[in-house]
Amino acid sequence: MSTRLASGGRLLERSKRVTFSWNGTRLNAFEGDTLASALLANGKTLVGRSFKYHRPRGIVASGGEEPNALVGLGEGSRFEPNQRATTTEMFDGLHAVSQNHWPSLEFDVGAVNAGLSRVFPAGFYYKTFIHPRAAWKHLFEPVIRQSAGLGKAPKSADADRYEYFYAFVDVLIVGGGMAGLAAALEAGRAGAKVLLIEQSPHLGGRVLIDDVMIGDQTGPDWVASATAELAQLPNVDVRTRMQGSGVYDHGYALGYERVADHTPGDKRPRHRLWRIRAGRIVTATGAIERPLAFAGNDVPGVMLASAVRDYVGLYGVSCGDRTVVVTNNDDAYRTAIALKEAGLDVPMIVDARPRSEGDLALEARALGIRVETGVGLAKVKGKKRVEGVAICAQAGEGAVLEDIPCDCVAMSGGWSPVVHLWSHCGGKLNWDDKSAMFVPDPARPPLGQDGMGFVLTAGTTSGALDPHDAMKDAVLAGRRAADEVGHRHAEESALPHVSAPFETPMLPVWVMPQGAAIKLRSKAFLDYQNDVKVSDVQLAAQEGYESVEHTKRYTTLGMATDQGKLSNINGLAVLAGSLNAPIPQVGTTTFRPPYTPISMGAIAGEARDALFKPTRKTVIDDWLDRSGAHWEPVSDWRRPYAICRNGENVKDAVTREITNTRTNVGLLDASTLGKIIVKGPDAGKFLDLLYTNMMSTLKPGRCRYGLMCNENGFLFDDGVVVRLSEDTFLCHTTSGGSDGVHAWMEEWLQTEWWDLKVFTANVTEQYAQIGVVGPKARLVLEALGGMDVSAQALAFMAMAEGELAGIRARVMRISFSGELSYEIAVPAAQGLAFWEACLAAGEAHGIQPYGTEALHVMRAEKGFIMIGDETDGTVIPQDLNLHWAVSKKKEDFIGKRAHERSDLTRDDRKQLVGLETEDPSDVLPDGAHAVEGAKLANGMENMIGHVTSTYFSPTLKRSIAMALIKGGNKRMGQTLSFPLGGDKVIKAKVVDPVFLDKDGERQNV
Amino acid sequence: MLILTCPYCEVEGEETEFHPGGQAHLKRFGPGSSDEAFRDYLFERKNPRGVHFERWQHQYGCGKWFHVARCTVTLEVFGSYSAQSLAPPAEVLETIQARRPGWEFET
Ligand SMILES: [Zn+2]
Which residues in chain B are contacts of A747 at CB distance < 8 A? Predict the structure, then answer.
């Protein structure tokens, strides 16, 4: 039974009691606890269930590598699943629930999976779910959906806020243990701008707990004086609760700062994502202890030896009254000694090595601890918690030599340097045979833009497991990092001497016992979170999975949220053993950021709600909003779909707006249209290359509708081009196209036709553009006064500049509705004044503003295309019967070569047609498919095209539609079928897409 | 996130400041060109493991297009130069050859 000890716990504030809730029960803890230490202090050794078999799981580790103790934290809008109890700081009122079980943690129905483990072998998902297909839908999917997923998704929006920070430093040091502190001292003393970040709330790492002397100071004293000196250095910033999450190209790193996880609701941002640029990055991320693979190593109470030591030393928590230590190295003896010194019972140190005669072994024996060598654990007894262990010969097959009752097992399979950050951006590894671990190869670091390595490792991360070697390595790394960014200390201080007990070599032990039979191997877990056992990896190897990347995916080893921090090396070694290949030859899987999962909130930062993406608004926006605008997004803009009068619904508003515009006069805010000035002696020549039609022949003061294609020949933008003067053109683009078309022009000018003398300027937001549209439009302009807008002075497709209502105006007589229509551009600052002047002048003529839906219906009545409706990136102008706008005279324009391709000259391409439904009240759904003839061999209909625009026309009092239909030009008068699912089929006749005023008499007045 | 230098305004910026434009030094094939030449111009791209010439635009800076020579394996940047050039300048080629002995420029 785990419990709180009466004394001890370096990180605890025993004077500050707090309470927290676990599955609804109130429990006591101290400030300084983690949720994991507090749970253990309260005897909670069972904390969750595994993912696949729902096996009982307890706390294994004391840090970020924890695979089991994932919990749901917080409540309501602060609930978050899958949080590691080992890295969750305790605070008063903390609320945690266990997950992956039903109906309760103690009794879980899903645990039946465990009994079925023989029918859930490695690769189960791949093997089972392919055939039969029906079984997927009716059998597997419902069951899997029920039990799948780790934790529960939060149900309400996150109450917290998050932010980004940006930092630019000479040297970023990741890890605030001995090595990180030593490197920071060196780089800081040399004058480099240093940022040291540590993921836990406290600095010091393992020297807080492992007995070392640094110079003449104890570990904790040295940490205190190093921290104090760093605080004095103005060029050094030290941040705790901040993880180095990822290392990316050219010295870019992400820091994940958990600002207020332990003080929820205090108004500070919960997390910060730091985007750091560093000249050099020093990773001082230490090492992680490896589990040993023996039967029952997942029973709650089996823990890493270092974690058991941490809980005693840092948190005053005993993980059990009687702890058996099982190891292949000297370090685990520290745990036995610490437990013994805390007054706890250590019945045996089970050492797999043939001999054990290091300083720590001598000390343990001197304390009266029984040390047995050449032995291992045949199995752990107990289901929901450890009840005892069976000892066997490590070299044998698991014949039991002795049973030892105990309630905790502290295991150590050696240490793996945390090489993740080194590897994220391409740093390479070497295999160290002596300590059976991968270590960074300093000769093959990740490279910066200058071709120099930008990541250095310091201390244990480098593979220096001996504390003195680690200190030396860290000091040199700190000096070198500073030196490489141009800071060298005048006089280098002497290397502090670190003294620690002499350790004898470890012995690689990948399976315990060495000859374990299948019965034992199928209970020896490698990956606790994903339930991958030694036997699974061996099965994968037997089935031909020789690559570690394949084995990983086949067995799911290392694919859980802990990304195999504990399991990868053991799994790799088992695979190598099965393949009879050396470990380095089998290789490692790829290390990818983030180091541990980071919150989605931190990734989003401030980018949520209104700040997610700014909305572009015209100068008329406020007026429209006040006047009943029903908004719709149009690329980055918002535009009024319709402007509803008091109590009017949107549909009625659209109908009223169309009718009023066609009978009286309508007012349109067209300011979102792109406006690009193209100027220079070669402007005409340039536009001839850009547009499919000829622009250089346009006379000043005249307008021409133009099309733009890409090099593949496909139409991507359209608009009216106005020649303002001999060398100046104004190109209108679609509302969504202005930035893209401007960039397109610049790209061609700068990278292909740089000899042309042309400048471009995107003036879209410099002007408000107001459409005055309808039979009474001229009357309104005359009432505004200031310009001759008569049919003689300002003919269709002409432009004039002058003043209207005292405001400088450019008046273009162009029409997208088929009505008499003027588009008037005025300086943006006077846009609203002009809009209001139009409303006042037009009042007598029944003027009413109209929105984008009325615009769309009116253009469809006229058969005008809309980019994005009638085009989809595969449509050429000729498909839309726009041959007249594609020049035959020009030698070249973008898209011309493509139009010569046989596929684009076929006469059975999909072509634009109009559709009239048999029942005029039936409106075809957008995108409805036309079908023809017999079904295809696969049972699908033979589709010949689809509806691109479809409306009910109030003007024609019937439905109208446009469609792209295979060989459409030859189908005039044919009736096509549009099945809508079920038995419903709409029949429609192919007609000319110009439904209204084919001769254009309405606009030529 | 790469760090690149714009040869026009000489700003050293983060990748987010720039817009990538694919392979540099493409030759455009227009009307009259063969189907093969036109296809290659549209779709055939190098994908070298090593030295590569790319187009970039200083999108959130001066707006200029330029070319960058860099290594796709190590991410080392050998230099940047005007987009208004038909081949890499001699000093960029020399830099690459110094860093990658034996490497030759292929058009
Ligand atoms: Zn620039």
Answer: 21, 57, 65
A666 and A796 housed in the same domain? yes
Query: E strands of A266-322, at which residues?
Result: 271-283, 287-289, 302-304, 317-318
In this structure, are A797 and A835 located in the same domain?
A: yes
Coil, helix or strand for A707? strand
In the three-class reduction of DSSP (H, G, I as helix; E, B as strand; rest coil), residue A478 is classed as: helix
Residue B30 has its nearest CB partner, among A277, A743, A896, at: A896
Q: Are A677 and A864 in contact (CB under 8 A)?
A: no
Residues of chain B with pLDDT under 70: none
Q: What pLDDT score does A119 carry?
A: 53
Looking at beta carbons, which residues of chain A come within 8 Å of B64? 750
A638 and A730, same domain (yes or no):
no
In a domain, A270, yes or no: yes
Domain limits for position A327: 291-413
The CATH number of whichever domain residue A808 belongs to comes to 3.30.1360.120
CB contact under 8 A, A252 and B1: yes
Point out the residue among A250, A752, A898 whose CB comes nearest to the CB of B2.
A250
Is A41 buried (19+), middle (13-18) or exposed (0-12) by CB count in 10 A? buried
Co-location of A18 and A84 in the same domain: yes
Three-state SS for A39? Answer: helix
Q: Residue A506 domain-assigned?
A: no
pTM of the model: 0.92
Q: Are residues A688 and A652 in the same domain?
A: no
Set of chain B residues whose Cβ sits within 8 Å of the Cβ of A451: 74, 76, 99
Q: Which among A277, A451, A712 has CB closest to B74?
A: A451
Q: What is the mean pLDDT of each run of 10 residues along chain A (1005 residues)?
A: 94 97 97 98 91 86 95 94 96 92 64 55 57 59 57 89 97 98 97 98 96 95 98 98 98 98 95 98 98 97 98 98 98 98 97 96 97 98 96 97 98 97 96 95 96 97 96 97 92 86 95 95 93 92 89 88 90 93 89 94 94 94 98 96 96 98 98 98 98 98 98 98 98 97 98 98 98 98 97 97 98 97 98 98 98 98 97 98 97 98 95 98 97 93 97 98 97 97 94 96 91
Residue A534 sits in the same domain as residue A465: no
**Residue A330 domain flag:** yes
Last residue of a domain, one of A413, A448, A475: A413
- Identify which of B39, B33, B29, B31 has the alpha carbon closest to the alpha carbon of residue A886: B31
pLDDT digits (tens, 9 = 90+) for A808-855: 999 999 999 999 999 999 999 999 999 999 999 999 999 999 999 999
Name the pairing type of β-strands A408-412 and A302-304.
parallel
CA A300 to chain centre: 34
CB contact under 8 A, A750 and B65: yes
Q: What is the pLDDT of residue A154?
A: 87
Q: Residue A489 has what pLDDT?
A: 79
| Complex ipTM | 0.98
Predicted confidence at residue A142, as pLDDT, reads 58
Count the domains in chain A.
7
A826 and A714 in one domain?
A: no
Query: In the Cβ-directed half-sphere of A991, how many Cα atoms lie within 13 Å?
Result: 19
Same domain, A654 and A784: yes
CATH code of A186's domain: 3.50.50.60
CA of A253 to the centre of ligand 1 (A): 24
Between the CA of A251 and the centroid of ligand 1 the distance, in Å, is: 21
**What domains are there in chain B, each with its CATH number?**
3-99 (3.30.2270.10)
Whole-number Cα distances in Å, A196 to A176, A482, A593: 7, 13, 19
Quote the ligand 1 centre to B10 CA distance (angstroms).
Answer: 6
Rounded to 5 degrees, φ, ψ at A663 are: -110, -35
Residues of B in contact with A901 (CB under 8 A): 35
Coil, helix or strand at residue A732: strand
Residue A72 lies in a domain: yes
- Residues B31, A897: C-beta atoms closer than 8 Å: yes
